[in-house]
Input
Amino acid sequence: MLNWTHITTVYLKELRDSLRDRRTLISMIVIPTLVMPGIMFGVGAVMAKVMQQARSETTSVVIVGGADSPDLVRAMKADERFRVVEGAGDFKTLISDKKVRVAVEFPAGFEAALKSGETKTVMIYHYQGEMKSGFGASDVERFLRDYRERTVENRLKERGLPPALTKPFETKRQNVAPPEKVGGNIVGGFIPYLIVVLCFTGAMYPAIDLTAGEKERGTMETLLCSPVHRLNIVLGKFFMVVTASLATVLLSLLSMGLTVMAGGSLLGAGQGVAAATAAGAKAAEPAFIPLIDPLGIFGVFAMIAPVAVLFAAVLLAVSLFAKSYKEAQSYVSPLVIVIIMPAVIGMLPGIELNAKTAFVPILNLSLVCKEMLSGVWSWSYIAIIFGSTCVYAGAALAVTVRMFNREDVIFRA
Amino acid sequence: MIEARALTKTFRDKKRGEIFAAHDITFRVEPGQIYGLLGANGAGKTTTLRMLATLLKPSAGGATVAGHDVVAAPEKVRAHVGFLAASTALYGRLTAREMIAYFGALNDLPPAEVRSRTQRLADELDMHEFLDRRCDKFSTGMKQKTSIARTLIHDPAVMIFDEPTLGLDVMTARAIVRFVRDCRARGKTVIYSTHVMSEVEKICDVIGIIHGGRLVAEGTLARLQERFAERDMEEIFVKAVGGEAALAAAANT
Output
């Protein structure tokens, strides 16, 4: 029954046929190699640039009620971080209209109150959710904190007390996670998600084309006239779909890897600057680029194989039922959401790999990839996940073979 | 040789319940003979031929095609059958040569054999001009020739034609009819379904009239003329199926 010569013949023909199909070519080769990294790094670069620009730009600020606090106003005007704008009356409108980023309101007699030791409140007005306004508010806060610290120091000096009086101890944060762990946790959540989606979309068009597409074009009946056992036809088609799925994943990872290597220094430097600026006047922690465990990438590939098999089989079975390309598309499109859900859940913090989640398809892949990319290898879970996914994939393939042997499916009118 | 023994195929329909697409169909076709299956649309021609080509499994009864049983050894049957229908299309993204070679390989022919047979078929069918062009760019005539080459690549003993001239222009249809005669001349067993009366008159040695899934009359043209006391095939057909009222009733279900 099983005839590898026939399977290979069908597979090679489907491969050749698919490589001549524009839709499959676009989903299998063009999107992963050109568009995906383009989008990812295009958006990334634009965002990094916008953030950097927002941070480096001077903050336009309206000072309200600073008439009797000349020292403070002078200090603020002298600070190169700020550009003081007139317009005390309608400062809220100015902020809302994004004409200024923030406004700072000094209460009446603020400097006099400072001298007498009376506590007053300085108001900072900002626009919640607006990034530039948020940065501006932080800048103003930082400026006022420095001013307060200087005031405290002066007061201590006047009374002949040591500056350490108000600072009985210091705190400092130190990161103990090696860079690849941090990278695994940051990138590790995102990469499996991306792989799952690519693995599915890569299989989608060939699966539809090789089944519903053939029915629609009338070649299915031609193929069934050949003496090849239907099992071998299904397997030939199935291997083609798996190939397309894995090729899509491989090509996109490859092209993204190359993009990172080519543009990494540039982006990395940008992030470093951003991090340093964010840390502000405090000593900046050494900026690091997130690393991922290279062995983890091989692990991810080993784990994606049964998932590709599962997707290929499910997609073939679903689209085999359809009479036309369009009908198949309308069955398959909702499936994208079904597979994205567990992948997204895997990205959420707090969802951990355990004896239960290890059996949930796609979610388990998402979770184990996150671990592997950060260098954690829980072999028993890996075995459970690989094994269970293989079982699901096998079951799905069996369903596809059954479907292919059903006359009401093949000759559905 | 083809031997159909009480071939029956039922389908389940949600509204109408169990439907007999083919009911108790028995006939025999010898090598070097063209058997014409004549029937209106939906009479059961395609279902019967698909059962003979093992694309459908009979619900009851059976058939032997080229010495093999359609239920017990469908792969062996298909290895000796060339099936050509209006619904058997070509792969548009393959060239004619690739298309023929693909079916040669699926029939377990070694590549060298496929090459020499392709050459011979291209000579016979005058295909050299478009042999290396993609099928989706073909005219109907080129497509038919390629399909014929596809059905002949494994040199089958039995040829099954399901309305092969459907929707073809006169020239292409004539070429097909010529080719069907050619198959008979080479000693192949041929079964040919159509609803075109003139084609049946012209080429078929034995005619089977099928209606409502049943074989209602069978015989040579002369015998049918004698039995129904009519010269014209169309009149014979209408009488055989039970009059125009019966035809109209069948068309409305």
